[in-house]
């Protein structure tokens, strides 16, 4: 049973049926969801139907007191009223008298709506006969502890520690966001100086780019944490080859490692090791662990990444020769907002969210993550174990080498857009200019428009091979544009492949984008290589790895 009410926000904040179905999958126990002050039955599972001896159709849509009249007798109905009124979860234990007493536990928790007020409750009924005596003893002990000054003191200490962690996090958040912002604003101001030489100008651009990426990563971590806390983080599950995931993560971290003279050792099992999961989220797991190892490894150190099959699981190990972890901090490594050094003199930045997100993502994939360290200054090793979905037999080292070489080559490849006519729609002049420079640099002919009306006017002048549109624009948004485009005849561009390039990056936004008529959802910011690859794919072009990468 949750320790807190379930809170969901947004336009679609309340969905008892979805929540009850979700919990029903986790537990075979009888479960029912009711809504409102009269507790209208909205959903129940087969186990609950069997428990009360009624079909679902006899109960759904009726008040709980009418559908389950025995709730008045056993005290369940007053329990619902209390939980609905206070929003505080409760447990009720009730004994059925007879030759062999049977104990039932009613676990009830509230569902909070957008205004943080209860809008319904979910009830789970559990046969707790075997645990009745033990539970009674525990409840008695808890009552005594709650009345004791010692227990109150302990609770106060816990509350103080939670408040301290929160204050430390807010201070770190302010520092970590303001630090790159200071560099961005400072160097951006210098770019307006006509006396700035070319070398300094290039340096300013690089500093702005690097610090902007730091801010993007922190914002992504905060958004992921918010999705995790609200239960809105979803996975797009498919077969995933972990070898390619690890290669991409290592290559992405190689420039940072080389700048600090840190060497990589990569060891991948020769067999194809596939898991069932979300490739983007698994990429995030590998990236976070490898970047963390590089971050805490001193100059001249080593980072070793391996992929092995262990029984029916595949294990990713990221080992480093870096700072290591003190024994007293090991139990808290994966806690959110926890850092071994939270002082103003700390040597390493970050929000303390990366490893907490890693643990949650791994557990969502049915796996486990653990960390080993012999102590400070002795390095550390992170181990991720995920269940295999199948093994395809062993390939030779030669084949393996060719596959890895091909995958590494693709990472540095580019796409050709020569001859393609592209329409870019965005109300930001700077964004339009940037996209035009990138795409024209790969041979495309690019037309830009700052509004839906201007985009439709451009489409009357001729057809385009690909449409790239922002979503949030004045007057009419990108959804309105794609609806009007799809209403056109094929001869006038009604079937033009389209990509939504937007700062609206939630899972709900992605689903709405795909349903509205776009072929792909691209969260901002996007790298030039990824943009070119997406456009080439939408246009049906093949990779040409001999072309220089777009910059």
What does this structure look like?
The structure is a single chain. The chain is α/β, with parallel strands linked by helices. It contains 17 helices and 20 strands. Helix 9 packs across helix 12 and helix 10 runs antiparallel to helix 11. The radius of gyration is 28 Å and the shape is globular. The C terminus is likely disordered.
Shape: globular
Largest sheet descriptor: 7 strands, mixed
Summed up, the helix count is 17
Q: Taking Cα atoms only, what radius of gyration do you get, to the nearest Å?
A: 28 Å
Helix-and-strand structural type: alpha/beta
In helices, the fraction of residues equals 40-55%
Q: Find the count of extended strands (DSSP E, 2+ residues).
A: 20
Mean pLDDT: 76
Low-confidence stretches: 6-14, 340-349, 390-415, 543-551
Approximately what portion of the residues adopt beta-strand conformation?
15-25%
State the distance separating the first and last CA atoms.
52 Å
Summarize the structure.
The protein has 17 helices and 20 strands. It has helices spanning 16-26, 46-52, 64-67, 70-73, 76-86, 132-147, 149-190, 198-230, 242-259, 279-295, 354-364, 397-411, 429-440, 452-460, 478-486, 507-516, 528-538, and strands at residues 6-7, 31-35, 40-44, 90-96, 102-112, 118-127, 238-241, 263-268, 271-277, 302-310, 313-320, 368-372, 380-394, 414-415, 421-425, 445-449, 466-469, 498-502, 520-523, 543-544.
């Amino acid at each position: 049973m949750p320790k807190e009410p379930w809170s969901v926000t947004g336009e679609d904040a309340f969905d008892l049926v979805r929540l009850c179905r979700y919990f029903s999958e986790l537990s075979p126990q009888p479960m029912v969801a009711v809504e409102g002050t009269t507790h209208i039955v909205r959903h129940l599972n087969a186990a609950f139907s069997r428990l009360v001896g009624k079909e679902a159709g006899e109960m759904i849509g009726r008040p709980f007191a009418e559908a389950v009249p025995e709730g008045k007798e056993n005290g369940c109905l007053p329990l619902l009223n209390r939980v609905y009124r206070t929003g505080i979860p409760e447990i009720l234990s009730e004994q059925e008298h007879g030759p062999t007493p049977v104990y039932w536990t009613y676990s009830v928790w509230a569902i909070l709506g957008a205004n943080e007020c209860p809008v319904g409750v979910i009830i789970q009924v559990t046969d707790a006969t075997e645990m009745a005596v033990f539970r009674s003893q525990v409840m008695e002990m808890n009552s005594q502890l709650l009345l004791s000054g010692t227990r109150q003191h302990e609770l106060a200490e816990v509350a103080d520690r939670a408040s301290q962690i929160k204050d430390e996090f807010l201070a770190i958040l302010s520092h970590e966001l303001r630090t790159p912002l200071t560099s961005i604003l400072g160097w951006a101001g210098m770019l307006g100086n006509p006396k700035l030489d070319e070398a300094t100008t290039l340096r300013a651009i690089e500093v702005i780019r690097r610090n902007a990426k730091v801010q993007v990563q922190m914002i992504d971590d905060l958004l992921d944490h918010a999705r995790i806390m609200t239960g809105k983080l979803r996975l797009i599950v498919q077969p995933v080859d972990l070898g390619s995931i690890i290669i991409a993560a290592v290559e992405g971290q190689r420039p940072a490692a080389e700048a600090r003279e840190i060497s990589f050792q990569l060891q991948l099992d020769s067999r194809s090791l596939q898991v069932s999961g979300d490739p983007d989220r698994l990429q995030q797991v590998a990236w976070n662990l490898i970047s963390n190892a590089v971050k805490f490894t001193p100059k001249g150190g080593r980072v070793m990444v391996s992929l092995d099959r262990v029984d029916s699981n595949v294990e990713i190990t990221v080992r480093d020769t870096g700072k290591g972890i003190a024994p007293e901090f090991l139990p808290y490594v994966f806690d959110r907002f926890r850092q071994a050094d939270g002082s103003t003199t700390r040597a390493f930045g970050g929000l303390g969210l990366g490893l907490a997100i890693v643990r949650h993502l791994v557990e969502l994939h049915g796996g486990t993550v653990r960390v080993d360290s012999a102590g400070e200054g002795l390095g550390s090793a992170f181990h991720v174990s995920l269940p295999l979905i199948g093994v395809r037999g062993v390939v030779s080292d030669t084949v393996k080498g060719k596959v890895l070489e091909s995958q590494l080559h693709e990472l540095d490849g580019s796409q050709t857009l020569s001859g393609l006519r592209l329409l870019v729609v965005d109300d930001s002049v700077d964004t339009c200019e940037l996209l035009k420079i990138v795409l024209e640099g790969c041979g495309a002919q690019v037309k830009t428009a700052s509004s839906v009306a201007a985009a439709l006017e451009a489409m009357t002048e001729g057809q385009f091979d690909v449409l790239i549109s922002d979503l949030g624009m004045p007057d009419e948004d990108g959804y309105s544009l794609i609806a009007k485009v799809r209403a056109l005849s094929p001869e006038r561009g009604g079937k033009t492949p389209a990509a939504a390039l937007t700062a609206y990056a939630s899972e709900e936004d992605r689903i709405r984008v795909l349903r509205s008529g776009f072929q792909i959802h691209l969260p901002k910011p996007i790298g030039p290589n990824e943009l070119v690859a997406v456009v080439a794919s939408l246009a049906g072009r093949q990779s040409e790895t001999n072309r220089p990468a777009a910059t």
